[in-house]
Structure to design on (339 residues):
């Protein structure tokens, strides 16, 4: 095992990992006007049968919902174990840039983008980042990293013959690795609030644990240079969580502020669901086209400080162009909550 890996979620973790195994990086790209929105997902999938192992780059058009899966030989995947530096064929991905040369499956995407102000979820001696101490547990089904809450984009892409300028736009980067995605989860992300630099990432999932499973959640609101964390490992609790055909309603409470802040906070989220594209996600046997992801959802967020004598609203806002995925065993996730 790479001894620095828990403190560097962006690097490649899988060189000595046996199948089944996957690793994927998620780049969200939104231009300044917001009328061009993309997710680009490079990665690798290891199968027990080497013939089914492969590298890939998925491209999701977040406006039209069109998703294209570009498969490459596993030998086309190259990655550093010390730096965030990943190649899939001629396509190159780093923490502060990407370069695309895609031409196949009815899609052509070429160009270079650079990112300024990359803001990762902080890591520490006892925390691997977004997963906290769970990131050090060796038998987790799936690990997660937030590599940049929000950053500026510079550059342009040629997309099917159209020059699309992303300069002045905003981006977000995360990644997942392990054996498979959870059998049920809700995930959402937006960094397009009226206040530049504010970003929300939130997920709740069924987590296998010692032959059983529990409902775990991780939520981070980055606002005004402060990270407010609500997670199972911080002792936060869910007050309400339910779905309708059009919305996700979710509220939680906990000690979410920076170190030394003993106050409790409440975070209320209401996400409006939207149609999306069908992207592939890993189970233990294949990359399966099973996840409907949108980049057209909206998320209303309200953060309140609950400390006696010092109560009040910290932030309230509406995030546009949100990524939203709702998949799998939802009854187990929602069990115990009305609605």
């Amino acid at each position: 095992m790479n001894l620095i890996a828990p403190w560097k979620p962006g690097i490649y973790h899988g060189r000595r990992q046996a199948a089944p195994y996957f690793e994927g990086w998620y780049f969200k790209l939104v231009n300044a006007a917001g009328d061009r929105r993309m997710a680009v997902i490079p990665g690798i999938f290891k199968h027990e049968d080497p013939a089914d192992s492969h590298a890939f780059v998925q491209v999701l058009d977040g406006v039209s919902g069109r998703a294209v899966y570009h498969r490459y030989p596993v030998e086309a995947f190259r990655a550093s174990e010390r730096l965030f530096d990943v190649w899939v064929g001629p396509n190159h991905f780093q923490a502060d840039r990407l370069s695309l040369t895609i031409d196949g499956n009815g899609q052509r995407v070429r160009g270079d983008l650079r990112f300024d102000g990359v803001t990762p979820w902080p890591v520490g001696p006892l925390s691997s980042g977004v997963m906290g101490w769970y990131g050090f547990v060796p038998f987790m089904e799936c690990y997660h990293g937030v590599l940049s809450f929000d950053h500026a984009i510079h550059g342009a892409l040629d997309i099917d013959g159209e020059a699309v300028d992303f300069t002045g736009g905003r981006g977000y980067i995360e990644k997942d690795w392990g054996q498979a995605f959870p059998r049920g989860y809700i995930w959402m992300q937006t960094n397009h609030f009226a206040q530049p630099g504010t970003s929300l990432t939130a997920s709740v999932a069924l987590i296998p644990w010692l032959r059983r499973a529990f409902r775990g959640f991780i939520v981070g609101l980055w606002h005004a240079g402060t990270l407010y964390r609500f997670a199972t490992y911080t002792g936060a609790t869910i007050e309400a969580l339910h779905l309708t055909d059009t919305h996700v309603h979710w509220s939680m409470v906990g000690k979410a502020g920076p170190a030394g802040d003993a106050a409790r906070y409440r975070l209320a989220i209401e996400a409006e669901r939207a149609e999306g594209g069908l992207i592939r996600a890993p189970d233990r046997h294949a990359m399966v086209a099973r996840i409907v992801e949108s980049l057209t959802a909206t998320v209303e967020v309200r953060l309140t400080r609950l400390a006696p004598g010092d109560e009040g609203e910290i932030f309230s806002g509406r995030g546009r162009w949100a990524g939203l995925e709702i998949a799998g065993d939802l009854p187990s996730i929602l069990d115990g909550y009305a609605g």
Q: What stands out?
A: The mean pLDDT is 93. The first strand starts at residue 21 and ends at 30. DSSP finds one helix and 22 strands in the chain.
